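Okay, can you check this protein?
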Amino acid sequence: MPTARPTRADARRNREALLAAARQAFLDGDTGTHVEDIARKAGVAVGTLYRHFETREALIEEVWRSEVDDLCKSAEGLLDQYAPDEALRRFLLLLVDHAAVGKGMSVALESIMATDSPVFDDARTRMADALALLLDAGYAQGTLRGDVAGPTLLRALGGVCTLRAKEGWIDEARQITSLIFDGLRQNDPGSR
């Protein structure tokens, strides 16, 4: 069986430029942007866009997947830099910021919600796993409760992030996230 050839440097650059241009268009609220506009902003021909992404929906999926990748990878990095409870606190705030990205992309994401795409289930699983990693580390250290699972915490934050429909939501979401974090802290580290 032949092995796949490595992607050429210029093809990688084109792909990254397309993802960056699409992400920015969606974050700017330009959800109706055409692939031709995205290609132009990326500095490539529309044919190049279609060589990388068969459809506009495939491009949207990849932008979302990339956002989730960056978010979930940050959990380990935070654990490398901070104590587990502080790493969790920072990750929870990153989840709120991620919801802000999702708000900007919400109309674009609606186009793939009706498909059989596993992108959302995969994202939820990966975010819950990242939360579980942080919760487990904090429990092992004695600073976080051990009776809350990653998926449960993700559902709680999902409720917080539904606030994004109202103006000025992010400040309130961060405040509620802080309350949730306080509830996760182990009051007596010796009583595990």
